[in-house]
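Most newcomers find our protein records easier to grasp once they have seen one. Sequence and backbone structure share a record, each on its own labelled line. Nothing more is needed to start thinking about how sequence determines fold. As an example, a complete record with its sequence and its structure tokens follows.
=====
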Amino acid sequence: MPQFSLTLTFRSDAERKRHLETVISQLQEKGAHIIYIQSKAAKVGEPPTTISTVTMTYKAPKRIKLQE
């Protein structure tokens, strides 16, 4: 089964937690097996704003499109 990556960007922890739970459940409902989740913090813009980037790696028969 091929592996795919999905990268999500968030501006707040509350937004990240709520949306991440939704994305994980959507992937699992469509038959994906989540292999790895990595989170990184970064600063962007002027003045610098902290963002969080989450990258998920999953196995599935084909790339899964998520509902927004």
